[in-house]
Design a protein that fits this description.
15 helices; 6-stranded mixed beta sheet; binds magnesium ion; binds acetylphosphate; alpha/beta; binds adenosine-5'-diphosphate; Nucleotidyltransferase, domain 5; 39% helix
Length: 403
């Protein structure tokens, strides 16, 4: 059975075509920097080599179409027609309170995904763009939704409630949901397999740092708190998102700048974060280049970004009553060695010791980057949301409950 996975993120679309019978990845790649200068499609060819095509990719629909074309391309593709795809699994970012597991997509599920547009404006619409494209091009092929929010449904009420009037929760389900759950779930389990320790009794802090970023406290295999909230804008400073901010500042800005809610949402989702502070870019690669040229605001953006990560790790160490393992993942977490070093050097109070040489040489691969005598294991685990989505999709299409 061949399963195509589409993972639409805020700045990227990643994909994998997996034969789940022999667990072979037939094709993989993705589009990055969607809607900003320098966008490109990169993918692995059937012979294993890699190819990058730079082109203007203004939105997710174009990214998805490029990916589907490449799959069947006579030179670069690995299938001759879409008939060779048996099922499609989609990352869907917001599932609200309705879904704590992956589901087969039908009209009712689509309705619920659309109901969450307001609370995940950078994500659910692009996840739907993927579902629509597949429905159009591969009618009748079963599609499965795998929700970012599902893994965090184990959070206790004291972690997921906001201290707003209780009726706001009962009337509108305004509560914290958390995101990147598929990634946190994957890396938390994978790191235990990698280290050869039991998953069920570890205190793990998983740091998914990409264009969007979130940190999760995982206790005995369950998410007990995470930095994102009702929407993927709470918590860390991100590429274009503000993260934690005094809610009073928002009403103040609305008054001063005469903003309506749409304009405010645009401000905190698309114009803030690394982009808003640096004035240069949302992408860490561009920020690094600007810092190397002596740009002060790029440096401030990076310092703020790192500071928030340190704060959340401290908070979740308190929540977990200690920490055994810290995991870095996501585009930034997997690739940015100086950022990992800066964060870990601030954690010496926990007995964290980083191995500088190992950290500096690790990029995009599974690696323990803490020193042998570190009290906490610090590990880089490249995330594989696509593999998790493929597994859930296979289970559901074959009538089994996903894990
Ligand atoms: N080689 C790299 N070095 C530094 N940062 C990188 C590198 N590759 C990717 N990134 C960072 O990762 C971010 C994208 O992360 P990713 O997890 O792919 O994003 P998304 O949130 O869209 O899924 C980019 O904005 C960039 O800042
Ligand atoms: C939920 C979220 O922020 O996802 P991404 O990092 O892919 O934008
Ligand atoms: Mg992502």
């Amino acid at each position: 059975m061949n399963i195509l996975v589409l993972n639409c993120g805020s700045s990227s679309v990643k994909y994998k075509l997996i034969n789940v019978d022999d667990k072979k990845t037939l094709a993989e790649g993705g589009v990055e920097k969607i809607g900003i200068p320098g966008s490109f499609l990169k993918f692995r060819l059937p012979d294993g080599s890699k190819k990058v095509i730079e082109e203007v990719i203004p939105d997710h629909r174009k990214a998805i179409m490029d990916i589907l074309n490449i799959l069947t391309d006579p030179t670069y593709g690995c299938i001759s027609s879409f008939k060779e795809i048996d099922a499609v699994g989609h990352r869907v970012v917001h599932g609200g309170e309705k879904f704590n597991k992956s589901v087969l997509i039908n009209d009712e599920v689509i309705e619920k995904i659309k109901e969450c547009y307001d609370v995940a404006p950078l994500h659910n619409p692009v996840n739907m763009a993927g579902i629509d494209a597949i429905t159009e091009l591969m009618p009748g092929v079963p599609q499965v939704a795998v929700f970012d929010t599902a893994f965090h449904q184990t959070m206790p009420a004291e972690a997921y409630m906001y201290a707003l009037p209780y009726e706001i929760y009962t009337k509108y389900s305004v509560r914290r949901f958390g995101f990147h759950g598929t990634s946190h779930r994957y890396v938390a389990r994978r790191v235990c397999d990698f280290l050869g320790v039991p998953y069920e009794n570890q205190r793990i802090i998983t740091c998914h740092i990409g264009n969007g970023g979130s940190i999760t406290a995982v206790k005995d295999g369950k998410s007990i708190d995470t930095s994102m909230g009702l929407t993927p804008v709470e918590g860390l400073m991100m590429g274009t998102r503000v993260g934690d901010v005094d809610p009073g500042a928002l009403t103040f800005i609305m008054d001063k700048e005469h903003l309506d809610t749409k304009q405010l949402s645009n401000l905190i989702n698309k114009k803030s974060g690394v982009l808003g502070i640096s004035g240069i870019s949302s992408d860490m690669r561009d920020i690094d280049a600007a810092i190397a040229e002596g740009n002060e605001r790029a440096k401030l953006a990076l310092d703020m970004y790192i500071y928030r990560i340190i704060k959340y790790i401290g908070a979740y160490t308190a929540v977990l009553n200690g920490v055994d393992i810290i995991v870095f993942t996501g585009g930034v977490g997997e690739n940015q060695q100086p950022l990992r070093k800066a964060v870990c050097e601030h954690l010496s109070y926990l007995g964290v010791k980083i191995d500088d040489a190992v950290n500096a040489s690790s990029r995009g691969e599974e690696k323990v980057i803490s020193a042998a005598d570190s009290k906490v294991k610090v590990v880089v685990i490249p995330t594989d949301e696509e593999l998790m989505i493929a597994r859930d999709t296979e289970a559901i299409v074959n009538g089994r409950q996903p894990e």
